[in-house]
Structure to design on (295 residues):
């Protein structure tokens, strides 16, 4: 029904539909491929037919809606596992009805070529722009697994792995880390050492965010670090590596949502603040408050 309404506009009317289909623009006038809650724009098409799309994911579940307005065709894909390339399957289904009517095959070769050395690739990798930590772990049988998704890595060539579940996605081994290639996008992760954090009391204090006008309080107890905010539930920080922690917002949102907190130090090693990064937040700065600033 939701996809059908993109064609009929029975709910909301034509004015709302036009605003949803109209690409937005940045402050400098640069057009972006996103409208009113939908991915739109000339870059999106299937078999030469323009498409309007959107996907979403939560935990281990994903969904994707692809609509071809000029052909009145909609494809909805529901997945019970995490996928990077959510669009790939509904686009292949839609291509059966438009263009040449044939979907491209993405089958993984039965005899996979020799790939990167799993032991050399093993380790932890971090995407600071998105706050994501990924790991490659090698089992006793020599199989490399990509964590936290638990997907086995299949050799693609001497520098790349792929997945049986997602053959259009590849992981390339580069000099300082890995690159995940998916649907024309490249996500860069640098290799990190999972070092210990400092004493919990080093991080405790009051932190002010000038951009948001809010104060977060980090406190240390026998179980680790906790964050409290005005009118919000307390959250617990989980150490990732060095001065980087994961902040689980399950108590606040009621569903799985995590942010990454990067504590920052001055030249003497004293914590001066932190930055928060997550799905829709990038590097939001919090400044540590001194006693005089707090009072």
């Amino acid at each position: 029904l939701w996809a059908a309404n993109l064609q009929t506009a029975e709910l909301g009317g034509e004015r709302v539909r036009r605003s949803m289909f109209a690409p937005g623009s940045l402050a400098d006038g640069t057009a972006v491929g996103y409208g009113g809650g939908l991915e739109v724009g000339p870059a999106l098409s299937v078999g030469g037919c323009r498409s309007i799309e959107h996907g979403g994911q939560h935990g281990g579940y994903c969904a994707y809606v692809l609509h071809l307005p000029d052909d009145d065709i909609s494809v909805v894909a529901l997945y019970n596992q995490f996928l990077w390339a959510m669009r790939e399957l509904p686009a292949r289904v839609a291509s059966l009805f438009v263009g040449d009517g044939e979907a491209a095959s993405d089958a993984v070769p039965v005899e996979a070529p020799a790939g990167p050395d799993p032991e050399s690739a093993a380790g932890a990798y971090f995407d600071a722009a998105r706050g994501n930590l990924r790991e490659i772990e090698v089992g006793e049988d020599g199989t490399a697994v990509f964590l936290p998704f638990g997907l086995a890595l299949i050799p693609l060539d001497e520098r790349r792995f792929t997945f049986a579940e997602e053959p259009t996605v590849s992981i390339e081994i580069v000099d300082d880390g890995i690159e995940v290639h998916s649907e024309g996008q490249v996500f860069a992760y640098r290799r990190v050492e999972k070092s210990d954090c400092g004493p919990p009391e080093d991080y405790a204090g009051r932190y002010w965010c000038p951009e948001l006008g809010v104060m977060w309080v980090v406190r240390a107890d026998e179980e680790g670090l906790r964050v409290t905010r005005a009118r919000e539930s307390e959250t617990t920080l989980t150490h990732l590596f060095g001065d980087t922690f994961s902040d689980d917002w399950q108590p606040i949102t009621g569903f799985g949502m995590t942010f990454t907190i990067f504590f920052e130090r001055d030249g003497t090693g004293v914590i001066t603040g932190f930055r928060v990064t997550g799905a829709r937040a990038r590097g939001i700065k919090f400044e540590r408050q001194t006693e005089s600033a707090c009072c």
